[in-house]
Amino acid sequence: TVRNALVSPQTHITESVIHPKPDPRNKRVSDLKLTGIMVASTLLYAVMLLVAAISFIPAFELWMNVVKPQSSFEAVPLVVLSVIIQTIVWTMLLRVHIFMTFAGSNERTTPWCLPLYMVYQSFAYSVHVWSLYPILSGTPMINSVLRFRGVTVEGRLLYFGFRLFEPTYVTFTDGCVVDECWITGHCGVFSQLSLGQSHVSGVLHQNCAVMMVAKTAATADKARLAEHGPQHLLMNSDESLGGGQSQASQEMVHSDTA
Q1: Cα dihedral sign, 123-125-130-132
Q2: For residue 45, how many C-alpha atoms fall within 13 Å in the half-sphere facing its CB?
């Protein structure tokens, strides 16, 4: 039985963890604040839909006013070219969105605007799904795209990643291999969202997840040669539970399960 307790990933629980009082980090958010977040996020989503509709104009203009295909032999390659143009436009818009969402967040380790961050998550997911990114996986071109989005690539990288969020917080060490993994620079505990640097190294197999891994853990010689997965979680124990209170929470969990 686990009640009123936050259990970190990869924790082996052998006995019930029952706390008489709820975790102090599970702070109640006022109805007024929740209403403000919902209204702001709704307006930002409406703006995002408008921008998404406008983003189709370059491909539409190419199709209707520049080339004007007269047969299927002209239309088929034009469709491919239109998708390429659409991917380029979305990548540029995503880079602008990243700049707006994480401006100044490196100093605060939290998003400066939570509704804007929520919209970024949705937009980044949509670009991953509907663009040519899956086709570029494993090619040198995807490495250039990652650098353009703000990712730090220190050397050779073979990237078949599945999802990547907070690119300005992500660093790939030399010789890294990523195979359909989640790479993030955030971690959420209850209503507290934390941002932090995530250094990726070694070989990550399918369905691995990386959350806020410290540079010292990723640049060690053993880490560069290590293989992880499939379905392996890599994260900092201290940072993953939300800053300075994480260690106390872990000690609490371990003492209850000892």
Answers
A1: positive
A2: 12
Sign of CA dihedral 247, 252, 256, 258: positive
List Cβ neighbours of 43 (8 Å cut-off, separation of 6 or more): none
> In terms of C-beta density within 10 A (0-12 exposed, 13-18 middle, 19 or more buried), how is residue 70 classed?
exposed
SS3 state at 204: strand
Report pTM: 0.78
Rama region for 204: left / alpha / beta (φ>0; ψ in -120 to 50; rest): beta
Backbone angles phi, psi at 9, to 5 degrees: -60, 155
Distance of alpha carbon 62 from alpha carbon 105, whole angstroms: 38
Bridge partners (DSSP) listed for residue 189:
192
pLDDT in tens, the chain (258 residues): 777 777 766 677 888 887 777 777 777 778 898 899 999 999 999 999 999 999 999 988 888 888 887 787 888 888 888 889 999 999 999 999 999 998 877 677 888 889 999 999 999 999 998 888 989 998 999 999 999 999 999 888 999 988 899 999 999 988 899 998 889 988 887 778 888 888 888 889 888 888 887 776 666 667 677 888 788 888 875 443 333 333 323 332 332 322
What's the chain's length in residues?
A: 258
